[in-house]
Amino acid sequence: MTKPDKEHDEADRPDLAVGGNVSGQVGMGDNVIQIGSISGGQVVFNPPGSTPSPGGEAPTGPALPQELYTRLRTALLACGPFADDQAVAALFIQEGLSQWRYDIPEADSAGERVERVIAWLWPKETGGENGLVHFLRVLAGRYEPPAGCRQQLENIANELAQT
Predict the structure, then answer these.
(1) 121 close to 103: Cβ distance less than 8 angstroms
(2) Buried b vs exposed e over 136-150: b needs ≥16 C-beta within 10 Å?
(3) d(CA 113, CA 10)
(4) CA separation for the pair 101, 134 (Å, rounded)
(5) Is residue 120 packed enough to be buried (19+ CB in 10 Å), middle (13-18) or exposed (0-12)?
(6) Which alpha helices (DSSP H) does the chain contain, by range?
(7) Per-residue DSSP letters for 8-22?
(8) Coil vs helix vs strand at 141
(9) pLDDT in tens, 134-158
(10) Contacts of 96 by beta carbon, 8 Å cutoff, 6+ apart
(11) What residues have CB less than 8 Å from 65, skipping those under 6 apart?
């Protein structure tokens, strides 16, 4: 993915605001995920090969409840290594994530990086487990119990596994 000439922070990107009405694509190379919408209480991603509904209404693909998406985004910003692309890439040497280490989406800000990783991993699967759920479990494992981040990430991973 080519980075834009002008660097943007989250405040400059209203199209990435949680709760906004967004549609578009996130990804790199052939690994593009169509974002169907972020509105109406759900975040909907259209996996590669799926077709969004005409006019953006009722897009197809797995959906994350808005409240869960917001908690996930907040937890990843607080607990994850999203300061730069290299910090995120360092997690992808671990089992269950390494098959994607060369396809990690890049971004110009931590908020954008979190949103792209969520969108990118949500439709993936590894070892019979959702890619995003597995990523959260790997990230939670970096913290010693009873660390707040560990528990928070594990709780969200468990909720996502039920979605």
Answers:
(1) no
(2) bbbbbeebeeeeebb
(3) 10
(4) 14
(5) buried
(6) 66-79, 85-91, 110-121, 131-140, 148-162
(7) --GGG-GGG-TTS--
(8) coil
(9) 999 999 999 887 679 999 999 999 9
(10) 126, 127, 129, 134, 138
(11) 41, 42, 163
Give strand pairing partners of 43: 38, 64
Whole-angstrom distance, CA of residue 163 vs CA of residue 156:
11
Residue with tokens 């967004």: 22
* 135-144, Cβ contacts within 8 angstroms, sequence gap of 24 or more: 135/91, 135/97, 136/72, 136/160, 138/91, 138/94, 138/96, 138/97, 139/76, 139/79, 139/80, 139/91, 143/79
Quickly state the pLDDT bin for 93 (edges 50, 70, 90): very high
52, 60 contact by CB (below 8 A): yes
CA distance 1 to 116: 12
In tens, the pLDDT along 14-55 reads: 344 444 444 444 444 444 444 444 444 445 544 443 334 334
- The token duo for 22 is 């967004």
